[in-house]
């Protein structure tokens, strides 16, 4: 089964999720595939204002929550349309891998080869510069000389040039809520958060075969969440946070 619905004020989930904005290309919808429910945010970089946040420039402290970031954006005259957590992080909270914000590298590339999902090689970087975006394997990114406006490093890579991560198995027994981001053949960026536990294989297949994203990166696991103007699923603090605002 594969179905999708745009989340409007008077439709799905009794109007809790209102995320169809005619003035923007942004679409947030719920989609069912393989018996699993996913929330999919489709971002058009030619029309949508996508940013990555971590440190509040006023306080010097991490934002930690969607609500804190929503309030900050409101003070700047912006309305948060969508938010989701970025890559895996360490205590602080501090991004565990590369974090580039407004062209400044706040955390360098992480070249770890052991310890947790981040070291389930290959891992990679999701980067944005102007209306271009990519998901690039970490060492290829290092060699590329990319100078993005925003970037986050996480792992593992879910899909690379149309190929699933070599360690993924259809019968994999690690089931968790998962989030990820893909750059798709239509040029759109798609953030995905699963509603329930899913293994890496099924999550990667959803990006490649359903969303048509030849490159996709895992962001985080059980704590993953998202927010729209009318809905906020966050239960734990975050380090990096991606937002679409206007």
UniProtKB/TrEMBL annotation:
The Phosphodiester glycosidase domain, residue ranges: 81-225
Alphabetical keyword list: Glycosidase, Hydrolase
InterPro entries: NAGPA
Domain of life: Bacteria
GO molecular function, one term: hydrolase activity, acting on glycosyl bonds
A Pfam family recorded for this sequence: NAGPA
Name of the protein in question: Phosphodiester glycosidase family protein
Organism, as annotated: Deinococcus navajonensis
